[in-house]
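hey so i finally got around to running the thing on that chain from the lab meeting. sorry it took forever, my laptop kept dying and i had to restart like 3 times. anyway pasting the input first so we r on the same page abt which one it is
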Amino acid sequence: MSHIIVNCRAIIVLLTMILFVLSATPSVFAPTIPEDSWTYAQPAPFEGRNQAVVLNNKIYVLTNSKNLFFEYDPATNVWTQKTSMPTSRWTFAICACENKVYVIGGVTKSLGYGSDLTTGVTEAYDPQTDTWETKAEMPTKRAQMNAETVNGKIYVISGETGGMRTEVDVTEVYDPNTDSWTTKTPIPTPRVLYASAVMDNKIHVIRNGHQIYDTETDTWCNGALVPKPAYTSAAACATTGTDAPKRIYVVGGDKSFASAMDLVYSYDPASDAWTKCACLQIARMGHGVAVVNDLVYAISGATDFVTATPTVERYRPFEYGTIPATIGIIYPETKTYTTNEIPLEFTINKPITWMGYSLDGKNNVTVFSNSTLKQLPEGNHNITVYATDIKGNTGASITKHFDIKLFDQHPQQNDDKSDSSIDLVVIAAIAVTAVGATFVIYHKKLRKHSER
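ok and heres what got predicted. didnt touch it at all, straight out
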């Protein structure tokens, strides 16, 4: 009966995996377009300068004009208008953090003659309730900067405080958990209207140079320059390494006074090198960019000083769909176990069609989820977990080594027996001595009595 229950459970888990794979979004499969090429997606219900951010595989776009706020779902190719933010402004910073969209700073009023009134207002949008909430104000009021999220904190770098020639070098960090701001190391060369993206906990600031901020060490360094950089208003984003190689993409921008570019470059932090990619179908500047399932989206924007476009383009990177799953073994750990039943637990970063393990270099054993390794013999062991994704790529974990040493299950009982034996000998010796002493005393008394 038990084996029937086990088989039923295995079938249920297998069906669950199949449903999970089949329910994957169309953009995960992506492959109707060749590598390194752009195709059109559903046009935006607006046109003009905007900024975009990704939250839970959906793209949220806030326009500079009228502050219209939209949600785009790449899985359904549908746009939905959402509640507008309370504070009207433009050239603000936007990012996603802790399941909310944050809009920070910006210009609230143009004072003329190249002077602007800036704000430090921070407002957070909750997609679950379609509502906005005001948070702690950014200490340095400014605009024309970006916000990037790293490990649950928001970094706002440089910008300008009041119009032309008011650039500042400040780096300020917002912590949503404490609703507070702190100051970090300033950027070496202040920048406005720059492109930025995060890769491996480092923030890349790209315009008239390539400055890299390490959030872990609070230090700055320089990276390789973009071959043909935009003058301003380019946009940047990063792929994750799940379905395409980890790269930073710099898309479009203003190549001169209000003249848009169609150039696209990708940056590999590992080699500190740039690669030219396929050009946009429509040159644009002041546009939003976003990455969902490692596909790059370029959203609306301006084409020149007076013309805008509602078009949305989607880019499929080089080597898309060739990246195997990343597998991490949690258990067993690299240590010595005193039991021969060891848990097998692991993580996989994408939908898969098969997974299994090889123990001590033997044939693969298929598993449907985390399980337990049973009846393992004493000695040294190693295990590798494998997984095949929906595109047929098979990945392998790092091989884990562990030992099993089974101790005697009844060592204390043996000791107790030994101790008991010793105790009996001692008691017996005492008894014999006592009897002997009694006999001697009795014998002496008897002898005295006879002499009388």
